[in-house]
């Protein structure tokens, strides 16, 4: 077998042990395709071309021909209301599957030109058999099966429709042995499942791609991909500058799921794609700025319910033009972009997922890149088995089932989203989506029941915590449209305006040391979003000639920080509502609501730089503090330095937070003020000491203390 033809899925098991090697070399002196087989007259063993048809548990298999010491069979199986059609290759009595296809309604006996073309193409490319010969064989098979389906498939049930909507669960899990299933379920039952996922995405062969860091991005994207398997669709755009790992993150995460990956997708290709029913995720690599206005892709969001495309075609029989209607199903979409600003209509339907382009992340990746030889040697010596956790995780996802997710604390989330922003109508659904997806991923650890024969799953307080800790920064970027490039550019723009009285594309491009196009895109974004505006009077005042736009600041612009509102949630109240909901709605449940979750923390000593610590809901991580009386300070008249040190310690232990109801003009913040407010708006609560520790790698300690004091004096902090 040639190297090209040997690239099959060697890991899969034979379809059925009824397809024995004893019947392999059946007599067939005449391989010509002159006449179609006659309709069977109910023989005990049906034959096609004088060869017995092999029965499978839920279908049958017909031999095509022997070629280059291999035999090729076409197989059809029905599982839970859907047909699987595939080629089977025999070499030395060992079967190997390749190019498996799916039809939700029809098997081989219904003409489907696109499906047949794909079957022809794959076998031709694999074996080198002429396409005409393969096409004619498939036509014969279709007629033969169409006339004899009932006799060919004694277990065939024409009315069986069970499981049409859970195909991926039924098919994938049925191929996993029971002993292995139990091992995979134990993975899904792990309280620190997020840690296992992190390790699975990291412990991969260097050639296959791996993820280090990117905690929020990878987990949020994975939540949405898990949702794609179980009926919850989203659009996800990994956004950031070139060469920072967007494509790698998308590749590794979507690789865990049934994904169609394409470099580009035209309107026509989307309308006529015949394999969308067989995938959960459509992954379009690198979308350009102008492509975000693609109406068809935009309307694939769950809010729009997919879309119906109508195309005019000519009927070959009548010669008349007719309207052909095609329904494009809702699918989870993943793409990447370097664009500064997305089309507003597309962006509003999106999860905007910024990718970490920090110096620290670059250092982590470089360190890993220069370990590739070390990892290769470990693999060769059998000291490490890359991808084991990744494959187990992928298999375990096939065991997840679809549930209706109930959220006991919905009303508590209302105040998080600003009513002044119309986009909150859509973005509030994104938070709900993440909560549901976390519950579905952790379904073996959640309260499950049936209400009026409907399987339901109760979302936990832990699912809200997952959505906020991991998805909060993503939601913030989604709601505001900001990514790190924009956050860093805004203070520079205002600094130029304060110095010169205005900013232009040329002055910003020089200050940022970026291209003119990049500077223009930045300024265009902030003009569109009301932070700056083009002022002709200022241009005339400074005597600036030509077509250059001159920008100055706008008036005060109110902005409510999403993460600040999220940080004020009463977590104990959320947990109590979950417990009461289960008692009232599912009275027979024995489910106990846990008090701990595993939260990610940066750890430079860990191989993947992240550890997941068990964290109780009563801990400081959730902002629930006990009032502690300050102990008497031991004084010493003879050692004033001790007094100074203890005074500093007391000050460092002082909790610091942003004052409520204070109006802050986010447009005029310095870089350090922005950094402080961003930290205070994050999930973690801060003391002055912890805030200094967090920021001292970027700013001097004395500068941080001074800025905190100034912000307290302005009433911004309390």
Strand order of the largest sheet: 3-4-5-6-7
Low-confidence stretches: 1-36, 155-171, 556-560, 624-650
- Mean pLDDT, nearest integer? 75
Roughly what percent helix?
25-40%
Strand content: 15-25%
What is the makeup of the main sheet? 5 strands, antiparallel
Please report the number of helical segments.
25
Terminal-residue CA separation: 74 Å
Q: What is the strand tally?
A: 23
What's the overall geometry?
A: globular
Rg over CA atoms, rounded to whole Å, is: 31 Å
Pairing-aware structural class of the strands and helices?
A: alpha/beta
What does this structure look like?
There is one protein chain. The chain has 718 residues and is α/β, with parallel strands linked by helices. A 5-stranded antiparallel beta sheet has the order 3-4-5-6-7. Strand 20 (596-602) and strand 21 (610-616) form a beta hairpin.
Features:
single chain, 718 residues, alpha/beta, five-stranded antiparallel sheet, five-stranded parallel sheet, 23 strands, 39% helix, 17% strand, disordered N terminus
Topology:
Blueprint: E1 47-48, E2 51-52, E3 54-56, E4 59-67, E5 70-79, E6 82-91, E7 94-103, H1 113-127, H2 131-152, H3 167-174, H4 178-188, H5 193-202, H6 215-229, E8 235-239, H7 246-254, E9 259-262, H8 267-272, E10 281-284, H9 295-298, E11 307-314, E12 321-328, E13 332-337, H10 344-347, E14 350-354, H11 359-369, H12 372-380, H13 388-397, E15 404-406, H14 424-441, E16 447-451, E17 454-458, H15 461-480, H16 484-500, H17 505-512, H18 516-528, E18 532-534, H19 536-541, E19 551-553, H20 562-566, H21 571-585, E20 596-602, E21 610-616, H22 640-652, E22 655-656, H23 671-680, E23 686-687, H24 688-695, H25 701-713
Parallel strand pairs: 8-13, 8-14, 9-10, 10-13, 15-17
Antiparallel strand pairs: 1-2, 3-4, 4-5, 5-6, 6-7, 11-12, 16-17, 18-19, 20-21, 22-23
Helix pairs in contact: 1-2, 4-13, 5-13, 6-7, 6-14, 6-15, 14-15, 16-17, 17-18
């Amino acid at each position: 077998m040639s190297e090209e033809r040997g690239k099959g899925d060697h890991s899969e098991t034979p379809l059925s042990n009824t397809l024995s090697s004893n019947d392999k070399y059946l007599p067939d002196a005449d391989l010509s395709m002159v006449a179609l087989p006659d309709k069977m007259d109910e023989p005990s063993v049906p034959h096609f071309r004088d060869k017995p048809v092999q029965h499978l548990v839920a279908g049958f298999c017909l031999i095509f021909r022997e070629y280059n010491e291999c035999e090729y069979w076409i197989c059809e199986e029905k599982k839970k209301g859907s047909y699987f059609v595939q080629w089977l290759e025999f070499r030395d009595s060992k079967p190997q599957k390749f190019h498996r296809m799916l039809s939700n309604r029809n098997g081989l006996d219904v003409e489907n030109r696109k499906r047949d073309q794909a079957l022809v193409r794959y076998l031709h490319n694999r074996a080198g058999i002429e396409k005409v010969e393969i096409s004619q064989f498939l036509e014969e098979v279709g007629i033969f099966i169409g006339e004899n389906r009932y006799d060919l498939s004694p277990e065939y049930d024409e009315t069986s429709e069970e499981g049409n909507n859970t195909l991926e669960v039924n098919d994938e899990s049925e191929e996993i042995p029971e002993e292995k299933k139990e091992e995979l379920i134990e993975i899904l039952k792990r309280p620190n499942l997020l840690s296992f996922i992190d390790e699975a995405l990291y412990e991969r062969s260097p050639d296959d791609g791996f993820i280090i860091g990117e905690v929020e991005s990878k987990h949020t994207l994975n939540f949405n991909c898990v949702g794609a398997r179980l009926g919850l669709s989203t659009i996800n755009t990994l956004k950031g500058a070139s060469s920072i790992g967007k494509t790698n993150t998308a590749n590794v995460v979507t690789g865990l799921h049934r994904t169609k990956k394409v470099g580009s997708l035209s309107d026509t290709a989307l309308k006529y794609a015949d394999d969308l029913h067989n995938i959960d995720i459509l992954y379009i690599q690198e979308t350009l700025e102008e492509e975000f206005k693609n109406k068809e892709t935009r309307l694939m969001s769950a809010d729009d319910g997919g879309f119906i495309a109508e195309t005019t075609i000519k009927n070959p029989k009548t010669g008349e033009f007719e309207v052909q209607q095609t329904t494009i199903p809702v699918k989870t979409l993943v793409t990447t972009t370097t664009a500064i600003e997305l089309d507003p209509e597309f962006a509003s339907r999106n999860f905007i997922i910024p990718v970490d382009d920090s110096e620290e992340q670059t250092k982590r990746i470089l360190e890993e890149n220069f370990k590739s030889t070390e990892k290769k040697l470990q693999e060769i010596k059998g000291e490490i088995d890359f991808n084991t956790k990744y494959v187990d995780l992928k298999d375990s996802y096939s065991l997840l089932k679809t549930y209706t997710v109930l959220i006991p604390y919905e009303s508590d989330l209302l105040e998080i989203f600003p009513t002044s922003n119309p986009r909150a109508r859509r973005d509030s659904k994104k938070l709900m989506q993440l909560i549901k997806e976390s519950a579905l991923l952790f379904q073996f650890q959640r309260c499950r029941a049936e209400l009026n024969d409907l399987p339901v799953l109760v979302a936990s307080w832990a699912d809200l915590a997952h959505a906020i800790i991991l998805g909060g920064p993503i939601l913030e970027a989604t709601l505001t449209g900001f990514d790190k490039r924009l956050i860093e550019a805004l203070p520079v723009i205002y600094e130029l305006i304060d110095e010169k009285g205005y900013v232009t594309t040329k002055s910003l491009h020089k200050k940022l040391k970026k291209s003119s196009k990049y500077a223009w895109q930045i300024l265009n974004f902030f003009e569109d979003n009301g932070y700056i505006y083009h002022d002709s009077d200022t241009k005339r005042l400074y005597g600036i000639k030509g077509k250059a736009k001159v920008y100055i600041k706008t008036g005060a612009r109110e902005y409510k920080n999403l993460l600040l509102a999220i940080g004020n949630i009463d977590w104990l109240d959320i947990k109590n509502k979950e417990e009461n909901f289960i008692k009232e709605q599912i009275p027979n449940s024995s489910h106990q609501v846990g008090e701990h979750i595993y939260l990610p923390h940066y750890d430079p000593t860990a191989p993947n730089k992240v550890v997941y610590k068990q964290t109780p809901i009563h801990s400081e991580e959730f902002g629930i503090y006990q009032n502690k009386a300050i102990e008497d300070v031991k004084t010493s008249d003879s050692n004033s330095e001790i007094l100074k040190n203890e005074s500093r310690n007391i000050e460092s232990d002082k909790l610091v937070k942003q004052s409520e109801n204070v109006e802050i003009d986010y447009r005029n913040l310095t870089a350090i003020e922005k950094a402080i407010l961003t930290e205070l708006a994050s999930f973690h609560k801060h003391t002055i000491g912890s805030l200094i520790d967090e920021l001292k790698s970027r700013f001097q300690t004395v500068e941080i203390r001074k800025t905190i004091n100034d912000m307290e004096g302005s009433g911004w902090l309390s």
